[in-house]
Amino acid sequence: MLSQLPPAAEVVSAAVSGEPPSATYLNTATLTIGGTNITHYRYRVNNGAYSAQAAVGAPITLSGLADGVYTVHVIGRNAAGTWQAETDPTISRTWTVLSGLRRLVFNEVLARNDAAVNHGGTFPDLVELYNAGSATVNLQGLRLTDDLNAPNKFVFPAGASLGTGQYLVVYADDPDGTPGFHLGFALDQNGETLYLLDTAANGGRVLDTLALGLQLADRSIGRLASGQWGLCTPTFAVPTPPPHSAIPPASRSTSGSPTRPDLAGGFSSSSTTPTRCPWSCGDCILPTSPWGGPFKHAIAPLSFIPGFGYRTFVADNNPGAGPTM
After folding, report:
1. Contact assessment for residue 89 and residue 73, using Cβ atoms and an 8 Å cutoff
2. Does 126 reside within a domain?
3. How far is Cα 146 from Cα 270, in angstroms, rounded to an integer?
4. What's the rounded Cα separation, in Å, for the pair 233 and 143?
């Protein structure tokens, strides 16, 4: 007769979400606590003492944070009354508070606007900026470009500004009589790098940069609440966009089609996504051989293949020709 093994002990582990992006000028933070079968929790900030227990429905609310680096440690209690060990807490993502932060960043980009955002009867590419700083930013003289050898492709005119916590959409097309700022150049849906530059008088340093790869029709890439970038449903039409939510990607499993000749006399390789979900293929590797060149070509970050779709990469040993080469 087989003896019955005792059931495995339940792992008690709280989950933490809602950490502010880093760096931030905000001296407040609200963190949500959850986890499988977790009913209560205790927490500490940095190396402080643990708090009294609280129900998971009550968030951690921090205020009056001085400039500095913050991490929250959480231990959870399950419905059976078992506590997570203090020696093995759940640790939040670390963030930095800088009260005087002057931070203007890219927030959302749509490089293939087939029908997602109608702007006065046109469908231009779009770039959204966000003022994550503690004061209004004077935009006059700041520049946007996709080529550091041509830094003045677009220069904000006199009088342009952006208030703290505010968003600004600029249109990546030629001026056409529709409202707003027009960059005078379109975005490359096959991938490129955008640069936000300081004024020439201030030295022209790079304030923010965004490298994007192969883009999907009517899907933007947006800065998520975590500070990372992901594939999103465009929110340019929303007056005050909420934190972006990434579109769930397909798993990183693909089936390849055979290598076939291309018109240039070399060869090309295609990958297909056998699923309805888009596949995030950025940073995947296309090796030339498992030994001599296993990391020969990394696909550009923030590259996507549509569900049941294909992308072709040309094996011409010329990565300078673009993200698909």
Report:
1. yes
2. yes
3. 27
4. 27
Q: How far apart are CA 82 and CA 292, in angstroms?
A: 53
pLDDT, greater one: 323 or 157: 157
Which three-class secondary structure state does DSSP give residue 320?
helix
What is the C-alpha separation between 268 and 313, in angstroms, rounded? 6
User: What is the domain count for the chain?
Assistant: 3
137 near 104, Cβ under 8 Å? yes
Q: Is the peptide bond before 135 cis (omega within 30 degrees of 0)?
A: no
Across 19-23, 120-124, 132-136, 309-313, the highest mean pLDDT is recorded for 120-124
Cβ proximity of 128 and 95 under 8 Å: no
d(CA 289, CA 235) in angstroms, rounded, equals: 42
User: Pairing mode, if any, of strands 192-197 and 90-91?
Assistant: unpaired
Burial class (CB in 10 A: 0-12, 13-18, 19+), 201: exposed
Query: Could you report the per-residue pLDDT of 186-201, keeping only the tens digit for each?
Result: 999 999 999 999 999 9
Strand-strand pairing, 137-138 and 54-55: unpaired
Structure-token match 């703290």, residue found: 164
Q: For the ranges 1-10, 164-173, 254-263, which has the lowest average pLDDT?
A: 254-263
Residues 205 and 141 in one domain: yes
How many Å is the Cα radius of gyration of the chain?
A: 24
Range of the domain at 201: 104-232
d(CA 183, CA 127): 9
Residues 35 and 83 placed together within one structural domain of the fold: yes
Q: How far apart are CA 194 and CA 129, in angstroms?
A: 12
CA distances from 295 to 218, 257, 284 (A): 31, 20, 9
Quick: pLDDT tens for 295-323: 556 777 787 777 776 667 677 766 666 66
What are φ and ψ of residue 224, in 5° steps? -85, 170
Name the strand (E) or helix (H) holding 170.
Answer: strand 167-172
Q: Give the HSE-up count for residue 289: Cα atoms under 13 Å, Cβ half-sphere.
A: 3
Are residues 152 and 215 part of one domain? yes
